Amino acid sequence: MKAIFLNLSAWMVLPFMDAIAKYLSSDLSFFQITWARYFFTVVFTIFFMFLFFRKQLKFSQNIKLQIIRGLSLFFANICFFYSISVISMAKALTLAFVAPLVTTALSPFLLKEKVGYRRWTAVLVGFFGILVVIRPGIIEINLASLAAVGTGCFYGFYLIITRKLHLTDSPLLTLLITGVVGAIIASFFVPIVWINPTPIQWSWMALMGIFACLGHILIILSLRYADASKLAPFGYFEIITNLILGYYVFSDFPDKYTFIGLFIIVSSGLYVFKREYYHKYK
């Protein structure tokens, strides 16, 4: 029960980071916002880890995979922050929910896992859900929607690498390295689009980093009490907070096609989780 509470708390917190990013995108570049997300997340993560978990810090046993993981999440964040600067948070998150399906599709090639016809069918159904949301040929496809799908693809690859690193490195170390990689890469390019933030915007960016750090710390703490495969389906709870913030802060409410697509994608994802859990514990 403690694991579920911590995990659900994480998915209640993280959409606040997205809401701040969308709010700031009206005046700042999505890339500058991405930089701020990583910079402040690293600052608060280092403070938190050295304050409470200093003895658990050990150097990575697989630094190459850590860097690749960091890059995957970095590109996922860029795609997502760009997408929510144009379309609603709910629509962007719905399309990003393709991540578990991407993980399943890539696992036979990258993890050497056997995927049966039932999970392949679920993957195809999930991608059909994306088509329902985007409706190609009926409405014009915009870059923001494609970026949201790109978020799911990068995040799916990120999940695969996380599975590999789970066997060698601690989750706290992985969190820190992922943030450092994103902060360093973003710092090289952010001067190109830099706009001097106001003191209030700096405060919002710092708060965004706090929400990101807190959300991921809660996820890590939840994994102390339950296996990741058991907690994975609770990630879909994020859409509830996302919908509430989108409606009350930005007056955005998804159309019926987004809800239909969401139902299809989430149902497919839950089925994949169920089958993976069955094969792992049967």
Characterise the protein shown here:
- With 282 residues, the chain is mainly alpha-helical.
- It has one domain (2-281).
- It contains twelve helices and no strands.
- The chain has helices at residues 2-24, 30-52, 63-84, 89-96, 99-110, 117-134, 143-165, 171-193, 199-222, 228-231, 238-250, 256-281.
- The two termini are 23 Å apart.
- 48% of the residues are buried.
- The mean pLDDT is 85.
Structural domain tally? 1
Low-confidence stretches: none
DSSP helical segment count? 12
- Span from first to last CA? 23 Å
What percent of residues are in strands? under 5%
Please provide the ordered H/E string of secondary-structure elements: HHHHHHHHHHHH
Q: Which descriptor suits the 3D outline?
A: globular
**Can you count the beta strands?**
0
Keywords:
12 helices; globular; 78% helix; 282 residues; single chain; mainly alpha
Please outline what is shown here:
This protein is mainly α.
Protein topology:
Layout: H1 2-24, H2 30-52, H3 63-84, H4 89-96, H5 99-110, H6 117-134, H7 143-165, H8 171-193, H9 199-222, H10 228-231, H11 238-250, H12 256-281
Helix pairs in contact: 1-9, 1-11, 2-3, 2-8, 2-9, 3-7, 3-8, 4-7, 4-11, 4-12, 5-6, 5-7, 6-12
